[in-house]
Amino acid sequence: MDFKPDLWKADALKKKKENQQFLAKAKRVRGIEKKLPDLHEEAFSKIDCLQCASCCKTISPRFKSPDLVRIAKYLGMKQGEMIDTYLRLDEDGDYVVKKSPCPFLGADNYCSIYEVRPRDCEKYPYTDSGEFFEYVNTTLQNSTTCPAVYYVLEKLRQVK
């Protein structure tokens, strides 16, 4: 696969239905998740998150209770104040950022709370774990948000 960083999003959008069908079948392929760690490493050897930050610019992590406590302390704020300032409850009852881009994302694409970021951010884009196949709709959406997800997906499609 010849990965073109500037063209991945258009390709991902074009292949969305095809990728959805692949993911639905792939999660039943025995041992396929074992390929993820190596493909994850390969993807991130080619992709620099700081050049992209599409995830931080377009989607929000869920902020769970441990995240709220840790981040509020790091910011020197009371938890309620931090929630009121930066977060809202979504339709699932999860705390998410009020608006995109994430308020903790700097102009240089660095995260101002990186050391204490939410667990969702730490795990994103799930290209190194079984969650990649467990949540097909999320992976499919992430394939149009994150070039690493698209890269891993394309590489998996080439495996026989």
Total DSSP E strands: 2
Strand order across the largest sheet? 1-2
How much β-strand is present in the residues? under 5%
SS content category: mainly alpha
H/E element sequence = HHHHHHHEEHHHH
Taken from the alpha-carbon principal axes, the silhouette is elongated
Model description:
The structure is a single chain. The protein is mainly α. The chain has two domains: 8-56 and 124-158, no CATH class; 62-121, no CATH class. Helices cover 53% and strands 4% of the residues. It is built from eleven helices and two strands. It has helices at 8-14, 16-26, 36-46, 49-52, 54-58, 65-75, 79-86, 119-123, 131-134, 136-142, 147-158; strands spanning 87-89, 95-97. A two-stranded antiparallel sheet has the order 1-2. Strand 1 (87-89) and strand 2 form a beta hairpin. Helix 2 (16-26) runs antiparallel to helix 10. The chain is elongated. 27% of the residues are buried. The mean pLDDT is 93.
